[in-house]
Design brief:
Length: about 150
């Protein structure tokens, strides 16, 4: 088994477990989004077009989440991995700069933040609030657009 096997070896382009968790929470909070919008640099995992926010769901291992236990470095082929991780970080920085230069805001969600729905909800609300975006409905509230029909 390779060192990266447990960290999402051969990363998938979409519909990963962390990405699906973020989608569920965003939808529950009342946000509507588009997936993998191709006209933005870096192909954000989700986009809130009306609010001009690009959301990236980063795997801790591949994108080197600081101080995260998942951001380990394999013990074999250390030079290869170091170069790979440095290239990933440089690409992430370049893409984020290009998106910001185009007038968009960027929100990064880390894989480890997606493990517990309540922690993910808090992280998304805090991240969006830091970007000046408020939630459409409070977490856990019921949809008020439907009205029960009286018998």
């Amino acid at each position: 088994m390779s060192a990266a096997r447990g960290h999402g070896a051969s990363p998938k382009g979409k519909d990963t477990k962390p990405e699906m968790a973020v989608r569920r929470v965003l939808h529950r909070l009342g946000f509507r989004f588009r997936l993998q919008r191709c006209d933005l640099p870096g192909r954000a995992d989700m986009v809130l077009p009306g609010r001009r926010v690009a959301i990236f769901v980063h795997r801790c291992f591949w994108h080197r989440h600081p101080d995260c236990r998942r951001a380990t470095t394999p013990k074999t082929r250390v030079d290869f991995w170091r170069a790979k991780f440095e290239a990933n970080a440089a690409r992430d920085e370049r893409v984020e700069g290009e998106i910001v230069a185009a007038g968009w805001k960027v929100l990064i969600v880390w894989e480890c933040q997606t493990k517990k729905p309540e922690d993910l909800t808090a992280a998304l609300l805090a991240g969006l609030a830091a970007l000046g975006i408020s939630c459409r409905r409070s977490p856990g509230s019921q949809d008020t657009r439907t009205t029960p029909i009286e018998p």
